[in-house]
Amino acid sequence: MNEYDSGVMKEMLVKNGFVYTDNPEIADIVIVNGCVVREKPEKKAIETLRYFKEKGKFTVAAGCVAQKDKQNLKDVADVVIGPMEYDILLDVMGKGGIYTDFADYRDRFYKYAQNRKDISFSEYVTIMTGCDNFCSYCVVPFTRGREKSRSIDDILAEVEHLVRMGVKEITLIGQNVNSYFYEGFEFKDLLEKVALIGPPRIRFTTSHPRDISIAVFDVIKRYSNIMPWLHLPLQTGSTRLLKEMKRGYTKEEFVYITRLARKIVPGMTISTDIMVAYPSETEEDFEQTIEVVKEIEFDYAYMFIYSPRKPSSAFYRYKKTLPRDVAVKRHRKLVDTVQEIVIKKRRKMIGKRYTLLIDGHSKKDPNVSRGKTEGNITVVVNKKLPAGTFVDVVITDVKGVTPFGNIIS
Ligand code: SAH
Ligand code: SF4
Fold first, then answer.
1. Residue range of the domain that includes 62
2. pLDDT tens digits for range 85-102
3. Which end of the chain is less crowded, N or C, counting CB atoms within 10 A of the terminal residue's CB?
4. In Å, how far are 80, 163, 237, 279, 340 from 284, measured between CA atoms?
5. Residues whose CB is less than 8 angstroms from the CB of residue 185 and which lie 6 or more positions away in sequence, other chains included
6. pTM for this prediction
7. CB of 44 within 8 A of CB of 69?
8. Do residue 268 and residue 341 come from a single domain?
9. What is the CATH number of the domain that holds 397?
10. How far apart are the first and last CA of the chain?
11. For a pocket test of ligand 2, which of 139, 140, 241, 245 has the largest count of ligand atoms closer than 8 A to its C-beta?
12. Residue with CA closest to ligand 1 atom 3
């Protein structure tokens, strides 16, 4: 989301006379578009702002860090601008000040994305912003505001533009893409319309287990350019905690959806987000997470230790977090469990054929390139290949969790 927004900001500023550099050390103005979902990235964003402020740069704090920490950023940022005010970025660049109203001119801002020139082989397209779910641990609804779907015409125009520019992969993004709804069009309708425009590869993220539907799986199955990959955050395998978190599904429902997805779309890979040490998580709750992980056999997972986030409801409800050593131990066990499953799954890829979309070659060794399978699994090939090319490979070996492929086309 931030990456996409940064790209749109860049388009907006460059179109209006600013010169872009990706080396902040030589820039006059440094924009830090920071995430606050967990404490660590939030601290990093503030440290980065401080570093460049001390170097005498004009600094701009953007994104959720601006929205959440506006009052504390005065010393490190000349401009503080929240995601709902990006449309006025140009006007406030020279002025300084704090702009964090929920003004909601997002459509005006995203218009800049529609004709963007500086594109990579793989691009994001925001389809909705904000979130209405208020999961107990999460800061997003407070920093990104209420859920809002972008106009279907704007999205399709952007996709058409990207396809004309030769993009190879488009990822539709939003905090909860399955609840997309615009003038009678649901997510499945949008997905189908995007598929018909014809980008070679389409992905979408993030799906919410409560809102994803069979109809979406059917669309994925019908269109060969929609990749068989689903990112479906589990958070925890304990139904008791899922309820506490206000996630809106049980452990059994989650398992059922993943089974259905794999049944309807053969070869579907499923990745997830999992959190450990949510306040009040017992050993028993945690063991249920491990059980679900083993049952579903995720293709990969992002795993986090709970981080208290003001003003989420869990922040106020629980005065204490679990002891750090307990959290770290559970996280370690979860990572090891996932790793074991992932290695087993990667080994099963040996002898099978996949089409890779190449991300680029290694800087250290140009004769080593990496690319992603249809199911979003990174594979290494021993050849120098430019980013954005498609190659067919057969997997010949797996080292750690990394499969190696031989090119067959
Ligand atoms: N909208 C998506 C993703 C939101 S943030 C969703 O609903 O899944 C990405 C991930 O960060 C979440 O899935 C969750 O696993 C993690 N996360 C969010 N808040 C967190 C917190 N307070 N502590 C630790 N992890 C958190
Ligand atoms: Fe946060 Fe839940 Fe919304 Fe995801 S669905 S952004 S976790 S509130």
1. 2-99
2. 898 998 888 788 999 987
3. C
4. 44, 49, 10, 13, 21
5. 152, 193
6. 0.95
7. no
8. yes
9. 2.40.50
10. 35
11. 140
12. 175
